[in-house]
Amino acid sequence: MAERQLPAAFAGLESFIDWSLATERERTARRQTIGMAAIKAFYDAMVARLDEILKHLNDFPLDAAPDDVKRLFFMTLSLAEVAPAVENFGQPGVVDGYEYTRFVPVHD
Amino acid sequence: MATALRTSNEKKWHDQYPELGTGPIPIEPYVSRDYFEKERAQIFRKVWLNIGRVEQIPNPGDYFVKDLAVLQTSILIVRGKDGAIRAFHNMCAHRGNKLVADTGGTCKGLFTCKFHGWAYALDGSLSHIADEASFFNLNKADLGMTPIAVDTWEGFVFINADPHPVESLREYLGEIGTGFGGYPFGELGATLFFWQTEIKANWKVIKDAFQEVWHIPTLHHKTIPNVFSDTVNKYGHALNFTLYPRHGRISLGGNYDRKPTTVESFALRYGSGATVIKHASINPPKGINPTRDPRWATDGNAIFPNCLMYVSERSYLTHIFWPLAEDRTLWEARFYYPKAKTLAERFSQEYAKVILRDINMEDGSTLERTQTMLASGAKTEMVLQDQELLIRQHHKVAEEYISAGTMREGD
Could you write out the DSSP letters of every residue in B183-210? Predict the structure, then answer.
């Protein structure tokens, strides 16, 4: 079995570890290319545990979290990335929107 | 609960500013190369322009480079050993090479030209001439980098490309510049999200869209239809407009009864919030929430010519529009938040950032389509309503600059 990536309490989310992405560019690219079914599965799994996840993350300062907590944190950033796809657009991209690759983040 | 109660039966904001008129606006300024060149010469080369923040260069030797097509130059902004911020045309005095080719960093010693090795100190003076003996009668003191006027306001760095600016930055900002003392721009500069895009639209098409909000219930109906509007104030009419001689402000109420989405509701628990900024608990400086309305959400400050700054309780954002041509613009969007204390707070900021970015995506495609039709020539004018007061003001101020410049040329 693969080594544990996330805090033990959230082991049930290990199958979504590919959503643990450190930069906006990577998160946006995954949202825009992976398809709505995968987005919805990830969204549902995260929202079901979000209350506990955020309580856990709220115990850690920005710059000093262990790696397993950081991976879980990056998954919540991916959740923020896909939330509008599920909650506002019903599709991965902005409806009738600007080409996402043209709106270039200068930050990470 | 009602937010900002203004209806068509009430007095219009335009009544307070009769000098602006109420007639249609010409489309020519949005499509004409000739007009674009007038804007370049009579506006952008004459006025103070916001090009960054002091947080970009906190220490002596820190610098950044800003290439500005509208000024047809590259500008080097550097903090000197004495702590002062200076700006220069980024050019070697030997044969004109662009001195610094990267976009920013820290200069430990001298800025050295990669062509023949001439080197300049942080204060712009020429420090070293390679093979100096082979030149003729050089006076090093005359061969420093060419300075550009630079000053700061509330931590924003402004430059003025006019070799002899007709007024100081403070004079230029005037009354809008005196209202922000005590607002924590510096603290909120800790977390910056910054996007750039080259958009196929005149810079004013984009600016116009971000200085009125009554398009929100229509264009942004999937994202934030009722953030500034509700069943009483259907079109999100502003709490207040205040116009200064060049600059202006739109003050907006928030719909605090708006139901957040699932993920947004989690984000709201951990601080920075998202699209609705909760009730203003601060006692803001006088230039913010001018009506002291408890339903206040944010103020949009239009700093002529190309900067919009939306100030909220615990975050602010800027949109800066750099003209590239009459139909192309470098649009810079920056969102500023305080440093998140925990990872959960940082998640909250991420939600706010992503939804705001996606809202900008909704604008972007519309703006490019607008430009194609403005360029069709099918119509020569557009019409504006009362909530589009800042758009009308821009045209008035721009016309004043352009006609004043034309008169000077005719002298």
Answer: --HHHHTTEEEEEEEEESS-HHHHHHHH
Q: For chain B (length 411 residues), average pLDDT per consecutive 10?
A: 51 94 97 98 98 96 98 98 98 98 97 97 97 95 97 98 97 94 90 96 98 91 87 91 97 89 94 52 80 90 98 92 98 95 96 95 95 98 97 98 76 46
What's residue B271's pLDDT? 80
Q: Do B342 and A59 touch (CB under 8 A)?
A: yes
Say how many CA atoms lie within 13 Å of B242 toward its Cβ: 17
On whether the CB atoms of residues B208 and B321 are closer than 8 A, the answer is no
Residue B89: which H helix or E strand, with range? Answer: strand B85-89
Residue showing tokens 């030797």: B61
Inter-chain residue contact A95 with B222, CB threshold 8 Å? yes
Sheet containing strand B296-303, edge to edge, reads A104-105, B191-199, B328-337, B316-325, B307-311, B296-303, B248-253, B240-243
Query: Nearest-CA neighbor of B216 among B353, B355, B101?
Result: B355
- Is this complex's ipTM strictly greater than 0.95? yes
Measured between beta carbons, the chain B residues lying within 8 angstroms of A68 are none
Q: Given B194, B343, B360, which is nearest A57 (Cβ)?
A: B343
Are residues A62 and B269, on separate chains, in Cβ contact within 8 Å?
Answer: no
Main-chain dihedrals φ then ψ at residue B149, nearest 5 degrees? -60, 135
